[in-house]
Amino acid sequence: MKLDEANRVILVPAREADLADFQLSLQDAFAAGFTAAFGTVPEGPIPSDAELGEFFHAPGAVTYHIVLDGARVGGSC
Predict the structure, then answer these.
(1) Mean pLDDT, to the nearest integer, of 17-43?
(2) Which helix (H) or strand (E) holds 61?
(3) For the residues 2-31, what does the mean pLDDT come to?
């Protein structure tokens, strides 16, 4: 996709209430990539719920939604 003046990407801080859905979306994306690369998914989510909880709540951590033209298209921690 070519980004130009019509395609605006912004980072929007995630709220605490967003984190459960954010976590599931992130784990689904990792599972899809892992399956594409290795054919199967390991038992349990990747990253684990515990790991993501640590990431989300680490001192100074900020979690962002990636928003393109008003629609959430991804995220990062």
Answers:
(1) 92
(2) none
(3) 86
3-state secondary structure (DSSP) of residue 71: strand
- Asked whether the CA dihedral 76, 13, 55, 51 is positive or negative, the reply is negative
Give the ranges where the chain is alpha helix by DSSP (H).
19-38, 49-57
Q: What is the token pair recorded at 56?
A: 């989300």
- CB neighbour list of residue 18: distance below 8 Å, 6 or more residues apart: 63, 65
Cα–Cα distance, 45 to 28 (Å, whole number): 8
Reported pTM: 0.78
Cβ atoms of 14 and 26 within 8 Å: the answer is no
**Nearest Cα to 14, choosing from 51, 66, 70?**
66
